Automatic annotation (TrEMBL), chain A:
Keywords: Ubl conjugation pathway
Summary of the function given for this chain in its UniProt record: Probable essential component of SCF (SKP1-CUL1-F-box protein) E3 ubiquitin-protein ligase complexes, which mediate the ubiquitination and subsequent proteasomal degradation of target proteins. Regulates cell proliferation during embryonic and larval development.
GO MF, any single term: cullin family protein binding
Highest taxon above the source species: Eukaryota
Family named by the database record: Belongs to the SKP1 family.
Signal peptide residue numbers: none
Name by which UniProt lists this protein: Skp1-related protein
An annotated GO cellular component: cytoplasm
Pathway(s) per entry: Protein modification; protein ubiquitination
Species, as recorded: Caenorhabditis briggsae
Listed CDD domains: BTB_POZ_SKP1 (cd18322)
From TrEMBL, chain B:
Disordered: annotated span: 1-100, 130-162
Designated name of the protein: Protein CBG11081
Compositionally skewed regions (Basic and acidic residues) per UniProt: 15-43, 57-87, 153-162
Polar residues bias: start-end ranges: 136-152
Membrane spanning stretches: none
Lineage: Eukaryota, Metazoa, Ecdysozoa, Nematoda, Chromadorea
Amino acid sequence: MAPKKNSAKRPQPSTPKPSAPARIVKVQSSDGHILQADVRALLLSSTLAATIKGYDDENKPLEKLEVNNVVGFTLKLVLEWCEKHKEDDPAIAQAEKDKKNIFIPSWDRHFLTKLPMGNLFDLITAAYHLDITGLINYGCKTVANSAKGKSTEEMRELFGIPEPWEQPSTSTATWDD
Amino acid sequence: MRKKREKQLNKAKLGSKEGSKESVKGPMVEKKKETELLPEDKTQPTTHSTDSLEFMMPEKTDLKMNKTQPLEDDKTKESKEEIKGSSDEELGEVQLVDHDPDAEMKKEAVKKQAREVAHQKQLAELMEKSLERSESMNPTPDDTMKNVSSIHNESELPEIQKKKRKDYELMANSKFPLLNLPPEIIDLALKSMDRLELICYSFASKKAAKQVKSLHVLVQCL
């Protein structure tokens, strides 16, 4: 059996870690919505992981985490993705960051492509604020895939780029500059 | 002496004759004056309602006749009636035309045409109403076939294709404001694009061209 070509590109399935007792934490969004999530899922976010680590170091009871940059609907999507990937190793996503060709698993592809572009934008922005590398990678790859086969005019329409004559001319620079 | 007396008598006779002549000429002068004043009477309001000059003619004739021939009143009255009758005939358009023997035939023909037009209009209205009723009661077979075919086509599509179509519609309808993302994320998204898409994107705007330039992508061959 010859190994498949794409097998090297695909991320290795996360090895099952020894089962630890589930630790549920409340997360509050910027608009006041309170959601519940597993701590292991929250550790995918570098920002939240640092906050949780600070609580653990001080031996304080972690009751509620406040996320001021993300609204309730988007936070729900982020936690859904994190819940699905809570078994994944964050190092793998970090290694994929510099790669050009990122393979998107089927669940993630379906999860990201079903979203409207506006919600996808909010999700990527939230992932950037919470520093979730895997979600950023898949989100950016989804955006790149959406531009496939499109002309300049279509891309301009998709990405909301104004026409050249509509842009305010801040300088006298020309195309040759 | 006798001759002198005869001359005086002759003079007296002659004077009396001249007086009589003068007495005879007096009314003639007055008549002339009246004739000179006649035009002023024309301007005065008359009993007749019309203003035409032709209608004023009988008055003139009356006056002249009264002045010149006061004894011939009966004749003037007759002539006056004749003149009035002729003026009435001249004024009325219908009265000027003689009795047309074909007028009744013409009227009947016009009435027949009007009846035919009205009958045709009624028939057309009835036809339209009957058509509308038939359409409302029995829909045309073409419409039913269209509906059946559309339902059949929709049922043939699998659910996965329907979902894909919905997803595609959602993706196509909304916009992704790429330039509002943080620069690191834009770079990451552009890096995962192919060369052709990068070139197309670089043509979108000056800012996009700068972003693509900053990636330092080497294009060895296309």
